[in-house]
Amino acid sequence: MLNIGVLVSGRGSNLQAIIDGIEKGRIDARIKLVISDNPDAFAIERCKNHNIPYRIVERRNFPSKVAFEEEMANLLREENVELVVLAGFMRILSKSFLRHFPDRVINIHPSLIPAFQGLHAQRQAVEFGAKFSGCTVHIVDESVDGGPVIVQAVVPLLPEDTEESLSERILKFEHRVLPQTVQWFAEGRVKVEGRKVLVEGAKYGTLPVNPELEKF
Amino acid sequence: MLNIGVLVSGRGSNLQAIIDGIEKGRIDARIKLVISDNPDAFAIERCKNHNIPYRIVERRNFPSKVAFEEEMANLLREENVELVVLAGFMRILSKSFLRHFPDRVINIHPSLIPAFQGLHAQRQAVEFGAKFSGCTVHIVDESVDGGPVIVQAVVPLLPEDTEESLSERILKFEHRVLPQTVQWFAEGRVKVEGRKVLVEGAKYGTLPVNPELEKF
Q1: pTM of this structure
Q2: Tell me, what's the ipTM?
């Protein structure tokens, strides 16, 4: 069983997808701790509903970003967390946090990076007039939404799409690729070599979406 | 019949795809003129083989970029060219050229823009470790590979891919999307509204590649 920690700031729908995957027996992991930097995050309700330990760690209660990040890292390390999942966590983590979990902090971003990095990725895609977008799970490094890519899912963008309708279409795939990625880590199949990430035994190379999504 | 001009700098495989589409009766257009800025471009041989008028216009023979571009624009206008297709043309066109053909200069780029714009797009994709790339036909504006998107095709990127193998996979789709786009213009179905391009009557919204590729 893989010990995971999840960092959230908002409604936590991707946290819910992981909870569901675990409860259905598709993910061989346990959520040792959820940390929210926002005391009002709906994600906290999800923790209560599923008896998952959570802590609220607010940036404003620390004198520096480093102190804030050290507190989070210490809480996660005390729980022997092996993989940290950012699920709608709205802060950029610095090296002082990442060094505790080398290549073991992952994030989900609602675009095919390097396209539409940063905030409001779906709105960016609609305004650009792209014909496809999607979502990406990547290793977190010090870039913003730019770390090594583990998996991407492609979705079409329709002429009538709005930020909302595209977000909804992408979210369905976020709820597949993120749990799948956690399970790959649980199975010890994720190999990171520089910018290249290989999932051992995954089926690469066909569309739509992802042949490598085996269970989700 | 749509009168088109094609600008080339190299081997001209996308020019060949257009020639083939016309000869097979899938494109209702005639190539009125091919302009090469490179006297050694293999594309010129293709023109000779298919009795297509061509001109060599070298930048070094003109005192300024504007004068060079004005010469090309004049040659194209003399032939009543309605659509200018950049098919591996390796220069950035300025407003002085584009104003002669508003929203009627198109380019093909071997990535899903805005990802991997500029030179060596396939190499950029391999080095980034992307899981998908593709190609884009777009309206040319003064940005580099950034104008309004007409059509995109997605291809998977495999773990063993090199710049060469990815380029080959993408090229097969370049040879479909570019002729298809020319035919859409011939049919008068391309509507440009700011950054949004709509192909009237095209089927949007499914993968793989492109439901809207009807004939290619």
Answers
A1: 0.91
A2: 0.89
